[in-house]
């Protein structure tokens, strides 16, 4: 990393006030936001959901980044639709640059469209091997979480500065386990010990179920996801790891360096609030990998 690169805390501190404005925008317009045509033929209806809020928030963040940190590459989920993409050096994690900043402007767009409160704005700062920082804002719940590499995880309300936030240690007594898209086959092996929330089969337009961010709030004690996208799943797993959770790949291996990953994604992940929960989730996944 070059000596002139801004540190991750400075980047978060600069962006936070603008992300709070984005959060207020998302919250105030949720009930009347325009739904846009689905993004292609994604693997599920979560991946293809799109609204005006996704595009507007990404544009706001792009403007702030280009004004303050124009030298840092940026990859936003809606980069193909953005008029600003061409002004960044690259959208890739590159050895020529110190960081890649990523953004999921509305993580849980389907939740957002259906009026649920657990959608998020997730901004991440990636290095070649790992995350440097992640900031996850829950506008409708007036809270945010952030983590800095090696410094732990923190939580606070949207009125609080980074420094005013309190330390976050994940402790969950709720025996709830989330299975991400494509993980439904694990349900049978886990149902005797846990209340299993299978996102593919249990999602409801009317009744809110936990998203992966439930691991941070204590609604979930564990989760298994088929891939950890840099912009969302892997970012939340980083906060969970800094908050004391166990995070590995589906076969129990350590996470690979980010620069070795393809398509802005880590492989499938296990996230667990304790070693006993982790062992149960690992055993279930290994039974399928054999």
TrEMBL record:
Gene Ontology MF term list: inositol monophosphate 1-phosphatase activity; metal ion binding
Cofactors that this protein relies on: Mg(2+)
InterPro entries linked to this entry: Inositol_monophosphatase-like
Keyword DNA-binding: no
Species: Tolypothrix tenuis PCC 7101
Transmembrane segments: none
Single GO biological process annotation from the record: signal transduction
Keywords: Magnesium, Metal-binding, Plasmid
Residue numbers binding Mg(2+): 77, 104, 106-107, 232
Pfam families per record: Inositol_P
Name the UniProt record assigns to this protein: Inositol monophosphatase
